[in-house]
Amino acid sequence: MEEKYRILIVDDDQDVRETLREILLRIGRVQVDCVGDGETGFSLIQKRDFDLAFIDMRLPGMDGLKLLKLVKSHDSRLPVVMITGFPSVDSAIQTMKDGAADFITKPLRFQQIEHVVEKQLFQRAGSPGEALTTAVGTEEETSGALSARLNSKIKELSILYSISDSMGTADFDVDRFYERIVDLASMITGAERTSLMILDREANELRIKAARGLNEKIVGSARVPLGHGVAGRVLKSGRPLLVKNKEFSPFRTQRKAYKTESYVSIPLTIKGETFGVLNVTDKTDGSQFDEGETLLLLTLVRKAALNIENSFLYETLYNNLIDTLQCLVTTLEAKDRHTQRHSERVTDHALRIAKAMSCSREEIESIRFAGLLHDIGKIGIHDVVLQKSDGLTEDEFSLVRTHPIIGQNIIRPLGLLPMETAIVRNHHERWDGQGYPDGLTGEEIPLLARILAVADSFDAMTSDRPYRSAKTQQEAIDELKRCAGSQFDRGVVEAFLHVNGSDLSKDG
Ligand SMILES: [Fe+2]
Fold this sequence. Notes:
It is built from 20 helices and 11 strands. The chain is of the alpha/beta class and about 500 residues long. It is elongated. Fe (ii) ion binds near residues 375, 403, 427 and 428. Fe (ii) ion (FE2) binds near residues 374, 375, 403, 427 and 428.
């Protein structure tokens, strides 16, 4: 059976007790006792063996500091974490002097508490007899050692806050996020070289997504197969690795290129599945990495994995939504044999025009994605009107003319790029200003909408309609030429003709 750690909470505020208890239980592998005053707390400590105690500074009757002293005189090895509302340097120094192992501040934060608990229990379990509480925090502690410990605590707290602050933003760019993890890891550990590797599932190997202090060539070309090298083995085992002295490393043959004999590799895990590894090597000051830094990196990576998971979830939901909309358009078009696969063909024509006009990669991707949605607004117009076999009345035509605006309203919540929105809203504008819905003129009409307009008209002309039969390809090309400069942008028509083996000077 898995070992459980016994933790005591002494706090007079029931809400704090309950919150802390909840957090501790979520961390897992713990058993928690709660009491509301110092006297009861101390009598419980005398009766039972605890692994860790949380004590509120302000308690009715016996206050927290007094209880701390009593506890330390009873069992100097029991780590005590003080809970404080308003931490000041004075009170922090006092608690540390009196033997507190650490302190946490209100309001309670999951991350802070998780970190403190892991540090205390890990250190007790990892090096019995050398717990932090016996090494420091006694009367004999020198002020130098105390101030070093306090400095390190302040650094740790500020790092934890910066981890919290720099993550969880709404607009999530995964590449920038990887860069940020690497920066934070370097900052936390003072490592000269840091890299974040993510598993390429198809090739079953790790690739570097972000790095600091590494040669660019290495970053671009490094491939680590699963189970190979330090990162590959950490990925396979799913367990963090701290190597303090290369001689004791199971992987020492791999590390010839590095200056110091110490490194840390932490796996990135979502729901038990490892998908990447964070590596730090070569501390700037030449010293070795320690357990405290490893724990901070674990905290960083856990928080990071959570954010990455959320972004994957968001991306999946987003893609599902887009697929659904594209499916709707296909279904809508399939209902009428005259418009079957219209949007797909329009997108193909538009892509060929865009490439001929040397559009950017981003513009081409926008057409690929939004071209399929350009007529999404027709969902809002009755089939009877859309499939009418004779001419439309003026009222019916006004109705059809609303589809770009309906379309824009449908895609608005998706947060598309302005040029993508323009494909939906402005694909019926005309170069001479006679189009709809905005009556834009010339280059006022966004380029991608001008491209879509030519592609859309060409496909409409070469398809049968209920009220007329299709023009031949040549007839449609002639019509485009005739309308270049009035209905259509001349440059776009030229590009279209170019990819179709014609040009404006040739007669039809
Ligand atoms: Fe349209």
